Amino acid sequence: MNSIDSLTTPTDCAGWQSLAQQLGFEGRAYVNGQYQWAVSSETFVCLSPIDGRELTSVASCDVADAELAVDAARKAFESGIWSQLAPADRKAVLLRFAELIEKHGDELALLETLDMGKPVSHARTVDVPATVRAIRWTAEAIDKVYGELAATPYNQIGMISREPVGVVAAIVPWNFPMIMASWKIAPALATGNSVILKPSEKSPLTAIRLAALATEAGIPPGVFNVLPGYGHTVGKALALHMDVDCLVFTGSTNVAKQLMIYAGQSNMKRVYLEAGGKSPNIVFANAPDLKKAAAEAATAIAFNQGEVCTAGSRLLVEESIRVEFVGLIREALKTWRPGHPLDPATTCGAIVDQAQLDRIIEYIGVGQSEGARLVEGGGRMMEETGGLYVQPAVFDGVRNDMRIASEEIFGPVLSVIGFTTAEEAIAIANDSIFGLAAAVWTSDLNTAHKVARALRAGSVWINHYDGGDMTAPFGGFKQSGNGRDKSLHAFDKYTELKATWLMLE
Ligand code: NAD
Description:
Structural class: alpha/beta
Oligomer: single chain
Radius of gyration: 23 Å
Bound molecules: nicotinamide-adenine-dinucleotide
Number of strands: 23
CATH superfamily of the largest domain: Aldehyde Dehydrogenase, Chain A, domain 1
Strand content: 15-25%
Number of domains: 2
Number of helices: 16
C-alpha cells in the first residue's frame, strides 16, 4: 500500500481528492506481526458512503483467525517480551507509535473519511489528534503510577500491586474508529497486555493501518493484532474464547448484553462495556447565553452526522423559551448542511452505510406517526452523488415516551421536549434506560449543581456540551455500560490487583 506522510495537508477538496488517488488500501488482518488474509480466504467489500465507490476487499476473519491471533497474543504475553518490559520502556515505544500516527495524519484522516463518511476536516483536526493524545497521555502516565503498601502491623508487609490481565480483545464501533480503538489499546498496551483489536466491519481500514505503525514503533510481534470481520463471526469467536482474559467493547447496548452472555458461557472473562446513549441536554430560561446554547445544541446533534454516543438527542427546554429556542436551533443548523466530506468546508458528511441511513429515515417516519412535529430537515440529500446524506432533523412537541425520544437513533435527529420545573426536567432526563451523558444550561449556580447531582449519567456538562479530555474518565451509568475509558481509572480494566503478604521473622 502507499503510505502518505503529512508534509503538506491539503487545503481544498481537489487537494484531498488528489491525495485519495495516491492512497493504497490494506485489507488484510494483522497477526503475529504480519499481514495475512483470513484462513478461509473469505473477504468482504469495503464501500465508501461518500459516493458508493468500492475501496478494497477486506479479510473476513472468523473462528480460525481468532485462534491464531489469541495463540500469538498469549505466546507473546507469556514470553515477557512486552508484559515484563519496564514501564518506561513501554512508554518510549508508545510515544513512537503516537509520533508515527501524527506523521501519517493526512493518510489516516483520509482513510477514516473514505471508509465511514465523516468530513475530512474533522477526521484531521479531531480524530487524528485525539488518537495521538490518547496514546501519548497514557504512555506518559504509565511510569508514574505506583502500587500500595497496606497498613500492616510492624512485623508484616502487605504489597498491593497491579499486573496485566493477559490477552485483551477490544471490539469497537464505526463512528470514531481510531479514537475508540485508542481509548482501549493505549491503556491495554501500556499496562503490558497483548491485544487483539476487532474493528467494525463498517470501518476497518484505519485499524488495519495502525497495526503496521505499531510494529514500526517497536511493539513486538503478537502483542498487537487486528482482526477485521463481522461481529457474529470473529467478534463472537473472541468473546467466547477460553483464552481471552478481558473483553472491552464500545458499541450498542444490545450487543453489549450479548457479550456478557458470551463471557458467562465461556471463561468468565472480564467484560467492560461502553454502550449506547440518549443524552438529555437541559436548557433553562435563565441560561447565560441562549444563542450559544442553541449553537452547541445543534453541534450536539449534527456533529459526526449525529453518529455520536453522547449526542444531545433529547433537548429539554423550559416552556417559556421553547418556541424562541427552537427558532435559534433551526438557525444554528444552517451551518450543518451535508456536503462533500473531502471538502474542508463541509461540517456534516455521509451516513456510514445504507442500513444506518434506512434506520434514520425510518425513525423520522416513526416520529411523524407518533404525532411529533418535524420542524426542520429530515430529507435525503445529494442522492445524485451515489452517497448517503441526510439533512439534520428537528422534532418539536415530543413526549419522552415516544420512540424517537426513548430509543437511540444514532443519526442527526433531535427531539425537543418542554418542561416547566427543575424537578420535571430531572425526572424526564432520568426516565431512560441509558445514562451516558447530560448537560444543563442555567446561570443559577444552585440549580446547576442540584440538577447535575441528580442526573444519572457518567458525564455532566454545565453551560456547554461534550467537554472533557484524557484527564477525565468516560463511561456510562445504567445500560450505557460499565467501567471507564480514559484517565488513570482506565488502568483498572486492564490490570488485576494482587496482594502479596510478607511476615517478617
Ligand atoms: P454495534 O454494537 O452494532 O457494533 C459494535 C462492534 O461490535 C462492531 O465491531 C461489531 O462488529 C461488533 N459486534 C456486533 N455483534 C457482535 C457479536 N454478536 N459478538 C461480538 N461482536 C459483535 O455498534 P455500532 O453500530 O458499530 O456502533 C454504534 C453504537 O456504538 C451506538 O449504540 C453507540 O451509542 C455506541 N457507542 C458508544 C460509545 C461509548 O463510549 N459509550 C462510543 C461510541 C459508540
